[in-house]
Amino acid sequence: MSKVQGQKEGPSNIETAFISSIDGQSSVDISSGIVNLKYYESILQDGVMGSVVFADAGNSVKGKTVMEGLPLTGSEFIQLKMTDNNDVELKQTMVVTNPTPISEESNKTMVVCSLVSEAYAKNDNTSIFERFDGKISDHVEKILTDNNYLATTKGLDVEITNNNLSEFGLRRKPYFMLNSFAKKSVPDGGLGNVAGYFFFETSEKMVFKSIDSLFDKEKNKPKRSIIYNESTSKGRKLSDIMNGGRGKDGTPAGYDYKALTYDRVTTDAVKRNNMGANSTATITFNPFTQDFKRTVLYSSSIPTDGQAEIKEPLATAGLDLPAFNPNLVKEFARTTISLFDVGTFDPEPLASNESDFEVEDILNQSIMRYNQMFATKVNITIAGDFELHAGDLVFFDAPSPQSDTKNDEVDRQSGGLYIIASLCHFISPKRTLTKLTLIRDSFGRTGNHTLRD
Fold first, then answer.
1. pLDDT by residue (tens digit) across 357-389?
2. What would the pLDDT profile of 207-240 be if each residue is shown by its tens digit?
3. For position 135, what pLDDT does the model report?
4. CA 369 to CA 195: how far, in whole Å?
5. Where are the beta strands (DSSP E) in 319-448?
6. Cα dist. 40→49, 163, 165, 436, 451 in Å?
7. Shortest CA distance to 420 belongs to which of 383, 453, 372, 387?
8. How far is the C-alpha of 453 from the C-alpha of 436, rounded, in Å?
């Protein structure tokens, strides 16, 4: 059930929104006519996206509308620059994809445009043919920066991988290759139980990071402490319980601000199990030796009587991974079948009977880890905060649901560290909001909302 917190939020300042013509001969600033603008980032989304609705007046370009005078047909660059109420700036160059008039009057037209990142627009027009050898993280950096591929000018946040991989491009797209590499990567120093990376884009950088480093508060410093607090001036307060005191807006001590809305969702445990969150099996075939092999992996929440390997412990955001009823487990839930690439990359194939990629030691763990990290989800809305990005770590607390509504204890089960899985900045002339979807792999509050290191 969603809850709404009473708190005012002011508009941000859209300083510029320049759209350049395809031939580069003209441009127009539509910032004064923007009705609303939405900007999206997500760890499950390869590139940043957005949309803008603006009033297209008849004298915008050479006495004509933007649609006619520029003209605006799609694939134009738009340069956005805006600041939130804390003077944090968000700058982004994006590509207009499908400008569409949605209403027309005698002297103006309302136009809605979908926006994608430059790299996202390049991806479908780029193919990879070459062969890659060496560390996966090196392959990722090349695809992101090489002039033949995405050629991004953004900063890179590429975590070094422990494992090597040889791979042919086979005319596949850059994003396909990057997401394929993510599933096969183990972080530097990893022992195989921490496999799995995410590739995504923010307004500042291109990110390729392991799941465990995203949850690690030493490597990914928490940016904000946020609380949802419905309490009035009566009764026992979170501020009394947790270090005392309140800010001017009633925010309990140690928190940066209060959430305006709060909605907690627990994902379907049976479906999550079926996708491999608790148990996976990999069947491999070696064409060199003609051997089949099955490797089964169980989470520590499932008793196995020593019949399968358990890769634990993991770096989790909370105290414990969610338990799953062992009476419902008759065998592993998900099976992956893979053919070893024995001899594929060796100039003398018969000289090697080793696979280039250790499927049974990496793929099982990455499948399990991807599905574990969405065990619980929280949706909150806050006043616009452009300093936050997908992949950031935040500390979130909400009151514990109790019969005594004046006893404003924090929820020890759901409170604690979360990853920002996705965010949306909503900007209009009247207000600016940031909607966050927070996820984590475990339950149980750990850490301290007042500490950042």
1. 676 668 777 888 888 888 889 999 999 999 999
2. 999 998 998 888 999 999 999 976 543 333 444 4
3. 93
4. 7
5. 334-339, 376-383, 393-397, 416-427, 432-440
6. 5, 32, 32, 10, 28
7. 387
8. 23
